[in-house]
Amino acid sequence: MEKKKVVIGMSGGVDSSVAAWLLQRQGYEVMGVTMQIWQDEDPDTEAENGGCCGLSAVEDARRVASALGIPYYVMNFKKDFKERVIDYFMDEYLRGRTPNPCIACNRYVKWESLLQKSLAIGADFIATGHYAQVEQLPNGRYAVKRSKTAAKDQTYALYNLTQEQLSRTLMPVGAYTKEEIRSMAEELGLLVAKKPDSQEICFVPDKDYARFIEEHAGRKIPEGNFVWTDGTVIGRHKGITHYTVGQRKRLGLSMGRPVVVTKICPDTNEVVIGEEQDVFCQSLRANRLNWMAAEQPKGEARFLAKIRYNHKGALCSVRMTGEHEAECIFDEPVRAVTPGQAVVFYDGDYVAGGGTII
User: Is the pLDDT of residue 47 over 50?
Assistant: First the structure.
């Protein structure tokens, strides 16, 4: 029987490298691909800043592919990445929201764009080194399942994948812990076995989002007023792109006590400041919903919801308030519900669905 063909996205890191080997061991015909997304044409800048997809990543991935004896290619996704990720990232911040660019990248670039190109060259599946698992449930739907290791679980950033994408996706790393993956890499003699994980947003490696936005928008983001929750002006802020809901540090305010960003108002160019208790709430609204393990609820449904990547999750009730909008009411108040971030609903170990907090 002819082997099934799989294209694996290789970032030059240990996870995708071992994923490629695991797929080989499972009997697939494996092809490695690195997605070229970095926008700067200067090689030195690209090598320094390219994160998981820069020139150094390409060289590491190429060496791993050679060691495994699999074909390897670099595919250009710069246009897709700029339109779907960078432009979205900038637009959201300028609207006073806090986006998650990795979710957009997963949905529209790492899956949609890579999947279409892979199918066009005869592949049956695509694969990644994410710490998550894909399963087809008894109801026939495909869903993302939590990985074996809670410390590295990456299901939150994958909630927006479609049924078609999931049906063509393999994630072999999700069945192992990070320690097991590194141990396999060392046994295989892979040069990336001890390579540290990438922590930052790949296109803003210095984490200075405000500077990045000003440079790419070609304009200075105006300063404005810090206001207290009652509207009283208490200081000047550096521009709304410097702040996010729940932020306590780098505010430059001398209030004599800890204070926190409670709201960002792009229409008035104000950043609202309050006490810690002001940033807790018991409900949120979300749109752009994607239902995965579950069909769209017809009545009220119970889930565990995560409102950011490192949130441990909170029990809630969810009901639809429109065709593409839902209300989520938590059993207990949660801290710093942030417009632009994702809320992801879990049914046990499976991602039931999620949406964008509005």
Answer: no
- What is the per-residue pLDDT across 223-235, written as a single tens digit (0 to 9) for each? 999 999 999 999 9
The C-alpha atoms of residue 144 and residue 159 are separated, in whole angstroms, by 7
pLDDT tens digit sequence for 256-305? 999 999 999 999 999 999 999 999 999 999 999 999 998 899 999 999 99
Cβ burial of 69 (10 Å; 0-12, 13-18, 19+) is exposed
CA 96 to each of CA 158, 213, 243, 290: distance values in angstroms, whole numbers, following the listed order: 24, 13, 8, 23
What 8-state DSSP symbol labels residue 255?
A: -
Catalytic site residues? 105, 202
| Per-residue CA distances from 330 to 203, 280, 289, 300, 315 (Å) | 34, 11, 18, 13, 6
**C-beta neighbour count of 319 within 10 angstroms:** 13
Segment 106-118 shows an average pLDDT of 93
Side chain identity, residue 143: A
| Least confident residue range of 41-50, 168-177, 185-194 | 41-50
Q: Which pTM does this prediction carry?
A: 0.93
59 — alpha (psi -120 to 50), left (phi > 0) or beta?
alpha
Residue 33 to residue 47: CA distance in whole angstroms: 18
170/189 Cα distance (integer angstroms): 24
Query: Alpha-carbon distance 123 to 244, whole Å?
Result: 42
How is residue 132 written in tokens? 């998550």
- 10 Å Cβ neighbour count for 311? 16
Only one residue has tokens 């809670």, namely 150
The answer to whether the CB of 305 falls within 8 A of the CB of 313 is yes
Q: What is the pLDDT of residues 186-203, one digit of tens each?
A: 999 998 998 888 766 888
Taking the C-alpha atoms of residue 148 and residue 133, their distance in angstroms, rounded to an integer, is 9
Nearest to 154 by CA among 321, 342, 320: 342
DSSP 256: S
